[in-house]
């Protein structure tokens, strides 16, 4: 009974918000925390429902591969949303399918950047059919990308295979069915190379990343700089851009918890010190 839980959790969540807001009050544009749609959950419940992405070891980004990402000076601000190649924020509801939503978001954008119409593709298809994952019980974006890459499966539109927020049987489509496949993907650990990560974003489109989102339960806006760590990844999201115009440069991160969460469905995460482990496992898709 969530109502009972809500009443019981009132003082708990207020204590949590006070703690999160009080530690770094002197910093500009630090994130602020408060009551949102997840406040009624205890942190353990929140983790069990929403933080279901499995961390993946990505190859270390090294000097040998640097040649593949040309080093040009970064713009102060860049956001793929302004090019109209990022779909609206989706809502995974109580399905732990963030890993599928992040990958599908990257595929949608990659095709739109190539000039195809921007369309919502089916996250449910990935949840049901990506055989090396656990559907709404969690998964890894890297194993979903590997599955897409090996099978060359075509993702169909969300309207043809709508999201049900629960696991279902995989529906197969004939090879003549129109859809969107990927040609390849890369994954890197950019943990001390966030400028190179920004170059990869400019070059390839929005990036799939896995973060520690344990404090995001109460996030309302501002730039996340604390209360999360690297090496504890549990949630997959999509980085669509960055902004270095203010005193704290930050990544622009699309979440899959609906547009009423955070900054209209987005989070802002401080750049250049691997905040929340945002640079530990970064993937780009090629179509």
Summarize it.
The protein is an alpha+beta fold. The chain contains 6 helices and 10 strands; from the N terminus they run αβαβαααβαβββββββ. The strands form 2 sheets. Strands 2, 3, 4, 6, 7, 8, 9 and 10 form an 8-stranded mixed sheet that branches. A two-stranded antiparallel sheet has the order 1-5.
Major sheet characteristics: 8 strands, mixed
CATH fold field value: Cathepsin B, Chain A
Low-pLDDT parts are 1-9
Counting structural domains, the number is 1
Number of strands: 10
How would you characterize this protein structure?
Its EC number is 3.4.22.42. Residues 74-286 form the Peptidase C1A papain C-terminal domain. It is an enzyme of class 3 (hydrolase). It catalyses: The recombinant human enzyme hydrolyzes synthetic endopeptidase substrates including Z-Phe-Arg-NHMec and Z-Arg-Arg-NHMec. InterPro entries: Papain-like_cys_pep_sf, Pept_cys_AS, Pept_his_AS, Peptidase_C1A, Peptidase_C1A_C, Peptidase_C1A_papain-like. There is one protein chain. The protein contains 6 helices and 10 strands, in the order αβαβαααβαβββββββ. The longest helix has 21 residues, at 2-22. With 287 residues, the protein is of the alpha+beta class. It is globular. It has one domain (2-94, 110-115, 181-286): Cathepsin B, Chain A (Alpha-Beta Complex), CATH 3.90.70.10. The strands form 2 sheets. Strands 2, 3, 4, 6, 7, 8, 9 and 10 form an 8-stranded mixed beta sheet that branches. A two-stranded antiparallel sheet has the order 1-5. It starts with a helix and ends with a strand. Residues 1-9 have low confidence and may be disordered. Helix 3 (98-113) packs across helix 4 (123-129).
């Amino acid at each position: 009974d969530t109502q009972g839980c809500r009443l019981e959790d009132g003082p708990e969540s207020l204590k949590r918000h006070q703690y999160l807001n009080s530690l770094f009050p002197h910093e500009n544009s630090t994130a602020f925390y408060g009551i949102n749609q997840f406040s009624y959950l205890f942190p353990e419940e929140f983790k069990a429902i929403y933080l279901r992405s499995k961390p993946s070891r990505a190859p270390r980004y090294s000097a040998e591969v640097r040649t593949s990402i040309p080093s040009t000076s970064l713009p102060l601000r860049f956001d793929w949303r302004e090019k109209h190649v990022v779909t609206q924020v989706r809502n995974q509801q109580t399905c732990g399918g963030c890993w599928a939503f992040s990958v599908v978001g990257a595929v949608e954008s990659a095709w739109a950047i190539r000039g195809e119409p921007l369309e919502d593709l089916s996250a449910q298809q990935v949840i049901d059919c990506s055989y090396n994952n656990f559907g709404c019980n969690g998964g890894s974006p890297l194993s979903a990308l590997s599955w897409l890459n090996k099978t060359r499966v075509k993702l169909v539109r969300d309207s043809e295979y709508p999201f049900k927020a629960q696991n279902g049987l995989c529906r197969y489509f004939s090879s003549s069915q129109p859809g969107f496949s990927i040609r390849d993907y890369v994954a890197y650990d950019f943990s001390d190379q966030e400028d190179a990560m920004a170059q990869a974003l400019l070059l390839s489109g929005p990036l799939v990343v896995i973060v520690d989102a344990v404090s995001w339960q109460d996030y309302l806006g501002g730039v996340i700089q604390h209360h999360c760590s690297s090496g504890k990844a549990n949630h997959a999201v999509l980085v669509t851009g960055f902004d270095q115009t203010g005193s704290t440069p930050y990544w622009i991160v699309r979440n899959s918890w609906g547009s009423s969460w955070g900054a209209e469905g987005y989070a802002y995460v401080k750049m250049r010190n691997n905040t929340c482990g945002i640079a530990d496992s970064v993937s780009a898709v090629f179509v």
